[in-house]
Amino acid sequence: MQASAPMDGTRGEIRFRFRGREVALSGFSPRLTLLDWLRTEAGATGTKEGCNEGDCGACTVVLARRIGETTSFAPVNSCILLLGQIDGAELITVEDLAQGADLHPVQEALVTHHGSQCGFCTPGIVMSLFAQHESAPDRLDASAVEDQLAGNLCRCTGYRPIIDAALAAHDVAPLGLWQGLADQGGDVFVGDATRFFAAPGNLASLGALYEAHPDATLVSGATDVGLWITKGLQDIQKVIWLGRVAGLDAVEDCGETLRIGAGATHAALLPVLAAVHPDLGEVMRRFGSKQVRASGTIGGNIANGSPIGDLAPCLIALGATLVLQKRETIRVVPLEDFFIAYRKQDRQLGEFVRAVIVPKLKDGQAFRAYKVSKRIDEDISAVLAAFRFDIAQGRIGAARIAYGGMAGTPARARNAEGFIIGARLEDEATWKGAMSALALDFQPLTDQRASAQYRSLVARNLLKKALIEMRGADVSTTRVAPPREGAYV
């Protein structure tokens, strides 16, 4: 069903490229997922539904978008991506890769190396490897392929021939047949005042629309909102997608700080934060999967307010501040003060996250961040710990200690911070009190990821690990967590 655009010039449809032609859609439900549209309306059943929560990767498709003179190829989980989010992209599924009788190099390599097994996960694996191949990395090794496939689970467990196929396909040049869609510009509004999918094109449009509809659900990457729909079965009536707001994804180097727009994806942020400190780069590398990092954003991660989100504790430890906006009114708050209680944040009606200001490390400041989870890749943290200490002549002059997974919100360990100021790194007796003080800061819960006792012990040991590393000692024998629980750092 096609609907005419509103009289003010706002588009009343989304537009994308699919199978060689431009598609315009209107009249769709704001909660319709891309996977459901593909399988039930487009007849593209090569894309499979597996977990329906963005974990297994069977539903992976690729969105090609023009960025300046280049084209990006983003693998995404179509099961939790809203249909409206593909506006302005070229949608590529597993059926679209072969050119007549000629398979894509990735497909050909998978055939040659016997990489396809039961076949259910194979379409998603093909699409993840296709995204990597068409992005044309200068070098490719098994580690890079493994990282690319972290979000594609195969129950048959035959990953070796799949990796061999990816490396073999790398020797063939990208086909370069997919180039996205020209910039559409303007605002998008599909529906009416009671039920709509909207995609503002600038901050002014976003502010006006959100003030008029403060009950709307703001969606950035939908990596969590998608689950509200597929698992929580929420009938979301109003969606405002932030992915088209001009400048909201900008990252600015301001000298002593970074100003990161709320729409910046985790994929874009990985090298930026890795340059601040290698530990941040590793935390971001283990942040979900390639599919999650391609869609999820820093603003969505923070505004969602998950107590086990990996990014917030790291940014709190660095001393980050949050820029909030309501129409033309700007408000800046320390990030740790934004989190009030479980899933409750200091955000007014009609107010949205605009940016995060992240201080860089200065001379004399040491930083560490550690993620503890049962699996190395694509797993939710049991505990995420981050530390920033000002150190002069071996003595701690100031401290910021933050944890995720230890309370209903990401939070600072202020009692432990108070105890550790003045401690000497070479004298463990001077900082033992800080480890004990963590019991005053947190009384963690027991859940399916870890027991309260385990979390408390890990929190203590990670603080100890950070301090030992900062004084340059060998930490190879440091006990981080009880082996029986199988945690990895």
Could you name the key traits of this structure?
3 domains; alpha+beta; five-stranded mixed sheet; Uridine Diphospho-n-acetylenolpyruvylglucosamine Reductase, domain 3; five-stranded antiparallel sheet; 489 residues; 22% strand; DNA polymerase, domain 1; Ubiquitin-like (UB roll); disordered N terminus
Give a verbal description of the structure.
The chain starts with 13 loop residues before the first strand and ends in a 19-residue tail after the last helix. The protein contains 16 helices and 20 strands. α8 packs antiparallel against α9, α14 (414-420) packs antiparallel against α15 and α15 (432-441) packs antiparallel against α16. A hairpin with a 2-residue loop joins β12 and β13 (329-334). The chain has three domains: 14-94 and 179-241, Ubiquitin-like (UB roll); 100-169, [2Fe-2S]-binding domain (DNA polymerase, domain 1, Orthogonal Bundle), CATH 1.10.150; 251-485, 2-Layer Sandwich (Uridine Diphospho-n-acetylenolpyruvylglucosamine Reductase, domain 3). The chain has a five-stranded mixed beta sheet. It has 489 residues and is of the alpha+beta class.
Write the layout of secondary structure elements.
Blueprint: E1 14-18, E2 21-25, H1 34-41, E3 60-67, E4 70-77, E5 90-92, H2 105-112, H3 122-134, H4 142-148, H5 159-169, E6 188-192, E7 195-199, H6 203-212, E8 217-219, H7 225-230, E9 238-241, E10 251-253, E11 257-261, H8 266-276, H9 278-285, H10 290-295, H11 298-304, H12 311-318, E12 321-326, E13 329-334, H13 335-338, E14 339-341, E15 344-345, E16 352-359, E17 365-372, E18 383-392, E19 395-404, E20 411-412, H14 414-420, H15 432-441, H16 452-470
Parallel strand pairs: 1-5, 7-9, 8-9
Antiparallel strand pairs: 1-2, 3-4, 3-5, 6-7, 10-11, 11-16, 12-13, 12-16, 14-15, 17-18, 18-19, 19-20
